Amino acid sequence: MYVLLMLLAVGCRNKQQRNIEFMPDMYESPAYKTYEVAPLSPPEHTVKRGELPYSYPNTIEGYEQAKVQLHNPLATDTLQQTQNLTDGKALYGIYCALCHGEKGDGKGILVQREKFFGVPNYKNRDFTEGSIYHVIYYGRNAMPAFATQLSEKERWQVTMYVEQLRDKR
């Protein structure tokens, strides 16, 4: 009986008029402007769970301190070091090789296409594991910071691989 009434109501409507909107708020969304609200940043003086605060500031003095005082805390046994270097090589290929090149010669694909200039060669550079980590953390010159993309362990793995590239050259 109800089905017959529904069919009668649907079949007898005037097709020249607009349909009745059932729940119009489903059809018309409120207008939002892109980037109207700034993205949330973590509160000041907080640290990501599971990580230690980085105590060197983003200054020349902080760089020099990190260069002298900061040392790699990752395990030094052969098996762990091999795994860390393997992981560091993979991360280097993702984040660094575009500019610095697969061999660390400063001739990555973006440099070859002349998107960036002055990317350093690792061969004759005066840097330590602390200074490499500091530059990965904060960035330097045209290089962006990777502190948000890489965890602390990953940054140290990349540092280990960069040192290996420098020693090979």
Structural overview:
This protein is 43% helix and 0% strand. It is built from seven helices and no strands. It has helices at 2-11, 60-69, 78-95, 97-100, 109-112, 129-138, 152-168.
Strand-helix topology:
Elements lengths: L1 H10 L48 H10 L8 H18 L1 H4 L8 H4 L16 H10 L13 H17 L1
Helix pairs in contact: 2-6, 3-7, 6-7
Shape estimate: elongated
* Number of contiguous helices: 7
Quote the beta fraction. under 5%
Largest sheet: none
Low-confidence runs: none
Question: What is the tally of beta strands?
Answer: 0
Helix-strand category = mainly alpha
Average pLDDT over all residues: 82
Radius of gyration: 28 Å
Query: H/E series, N to C?
Result: HHHHHHH
What percentage of residues falls in helices of 4 or more residues? 40-55%
Distance between the termini: 87 Å
Pfam family, one: Cytochrome_CBB3
Domain Cytochrome c: 83-166
Protein name: Cytochrome C
Keywords: Heme, Iron, Metal-binding
Keywords:
169 residues; mainly alpha; 7 helices; 43% helix; heme; Cyt_c-like_dom
Brief synopsis:
With 169 residues, this protein is mainly α. It is built from 7 helices and no strands.
